[in-house]
Amino acid sequence: IRTARCFEALRQRCCRLEQEQRRAREELACAAAERAVLEVKLKHARNQVEVEMKKRHRAEAALEKQERKLQLVFELLLQEPSGSGVLTAEQRSLLSALAGRHAARTLVPGRSRSSAVDESCQSLLSHSDISYDRTDDDVVRK
C-alpha cells in the first residue's frame, strides 16, 4: 500500500510537471512570436531612420549650395562697379549688412545647421545614440 501511495504521488507530480512544461512551451512560443514582430518593427524603423538621414543630408547639401550661391550674389552685387549704378546707397548698405549677418551665421567655426538641430533635440533622441549594429540580425536561431 505504501509503494502504491508513493507511485501515486510520483504520478501526480509527473502530471503537474507535464502541465508546467506545456504552459512554459506555450509562453515560449508566444514570446518567440512577439520577438519576431518586434524584430520586423526594428528592421522597418532602422530603414526609416536611414531614409530620413539620407533625406536630411541631401537637404543640408542643397541648403549649403543655395547659401553659397546667395553669398556669391551678395559679393557680386557689392563689388561690381556696374552694380553701383543700379543700386542706391541705401540698398548697398542693406545688402552689405545682410551679407555680413549671413556670413557671420554661416562661417561660425564648428557650428553647422546639423549641429544646431542635434543640440536642440539632444534630449529627445540624438542620431549618435542610435546603434546601427546589425550583428544581432545575423544570429542563427534554433
Overall number of domains? 1
The average pLDDT value, as a whole number, equals: 78
Element pattern in H and E: HHHH
- Rg, alpha carbons: 34 Å
Share of residues in helices: over 70%
Coiled coil: 28-69
Keywords: Coiled coil
Organism: Crypturellus soui
GO biological process, one term: mitotic cytokinesis
Written account of the structure:
It is a single chain. With 142 residues, the protein is mainly α. The protein has one domain. Helices cover 77% and strands 0% of the residues. The protein is built from four helices and no strands. The protein has helices at 2-79, 81-86, 89-106, 113-120. The longest helix has 78 residues, at 2-79. Mean pLDDT is 78; it is low at 119-126.
Quick structural gist:
The protein has 142 residues and is an all-alpha fold. It has helices spanning 2-79, 81-86, 89-106, 113-120.
What characteristics describe this protein?
142 residues, GTPase activator activity
Outline the fold blueprint.
Layout: H1 2-79, H2 81-86, H3 89-106, H4 113-120
Helix pairs in contact: 1-3
